[in-house]
């Protein structure tokens, strides 16, 4: 079975500092990995994905994530946080070898960037 | 281009009543998904339509939930009779890509509160 763990409910970071939002996953085959962001009163928006190739993936708004197969992780990072990055972040995974199985989401991590 | 729209944005009903949620996907998107998030928990998959056909309904909690997508356009999700544990935010998403490597486009969600 596929699963995603986001170990932190809340991450606080000062504006201008680097940020990391953690995600680990479990699949039986190779993973397709995604990050989505939800701003207040909005729907989830796609940030970036890892399907294959380069382990470092760059996405929207200056975010990037690194796929680490040995640690089964896909942490979201940004070199310099902005107050406008404050939102709820969801990691999601799908097993590439499991046919048409749905995307499995984590419980979300609330990022708060303090000015 | 209009995004995914959901109605109502918030519904408060009493236990035993019926509620119908509606989702209008992005025009031309054959794939339509329903997800649900109970407060603080994971976003859980409910079901997946391809056009008007149910591709996967493995996430539907029980037979009190009925989803339809007549004509392959908008979809409705009916809960009858509603129970307290049905409270949460119901998200609809659509995609053109059915290969499961593409991004999903989400609506803002319908918040259901069952008293």
Briefly summarize what is shown.
By secondary structure, chain A is mainly β.
Subunit arrangement of the protein: heterodimer
Helix content of chain B: under 10%
> In whole angstroms, how far apart are the ends of chain A?
41 Å
Taking pLDDT < 50 over at least 5 consecutive residues as the criterion, the unreliable ranges of chain A are none
Please describe what this structure looks like.
The complex is a heterodimer of chains A (115) and B (115). With 115 residues, chain A is mainly β. In chain A, 0% of the residues lie in helices and 52% in strands. Chain A has strands at residues 3-5, 10-14, 19-21, 24-26, 31-38, 44-50, 56-58, 64-68, 73-78, 87-95, 104-105, 109-114. In chain A, the strands form 3 sheets. In chain A, strands 2, 5, 6, 10, 11 and 12 form a 6-stranded mixed sheet that branches. With 115 residues, chain B is mainly beta. Helix content of chain B is 0%, strand content 49%. Chain B has no helices and 11 strands. Chain B has strands spanning 5-7, 10-13, 19-24, 31-37, 43-50, 53-56, 65-68, 75-79, 88-95, 105-106, 110-114. In chain B, the strands form 2 sheets. In chain B, strands 2, 4, 5, 6, 9, 10 and 11 form a 7-stranded mixed sheet that branches. A 4-stranded antiparallel sheet of chain B has the order 1-3-8-7, with no helix packed on it. Chain B is globular, with a radius of gyration of 13 Å. The mean pLDDT of chain B is 93. Classes of the chains: A mainly beta (115), B mainly beta (115). The interface between A and B is medium-sized, with 24 and 27 residues.
């Amino acid at each position: 079975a596929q699963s995603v763990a986001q170990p932190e409910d809340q991450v606080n970071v000062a504006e201008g500092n680097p940020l990391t939002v953690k995600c680990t996953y479990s699949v039986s085959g190779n993973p397709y990995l995604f990050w989505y962001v939800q701003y207040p009163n909005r729907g989830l928006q796609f940030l970036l994905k890892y399907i294959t190739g380069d382990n470092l993936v760059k996405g929207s708004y200056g975010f990037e994530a690194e796929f680490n197969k040995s640690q089964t992780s896909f942490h979201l990072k940004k070199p310099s946080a902005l107050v406008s990055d404050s939102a709820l972040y969801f990691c999601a995974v799908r097993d590439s070898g499991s046919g048409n199985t749905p995307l499995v989401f984590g419980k979300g991590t609330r990022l708060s960037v303090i000015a | 281009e209009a995004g995914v729209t959901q109605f109502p944005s918030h519904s408060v009903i009493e236990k035993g009543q019926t509620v119908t949620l509606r989702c209008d996907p992005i025009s031309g998107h054959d794939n339509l998904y329903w997800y649900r998030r109970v407060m603080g928990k994971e976003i859980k998959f409910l079901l997946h339509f391809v056009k008007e056909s149910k591709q996967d309904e493995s996430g539907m909690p029980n037979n009190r939930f009925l989803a339809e997508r007549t004509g392959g356009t908008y979809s409705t999700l009916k809960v009858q009779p509603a129970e307290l544990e049905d409270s949460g935010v119901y998200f609809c998403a659509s995609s053109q890509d059915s290969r499961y490597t593409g991004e999903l486009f989400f609506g803002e969600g319908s918040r259901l509160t069952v008293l």
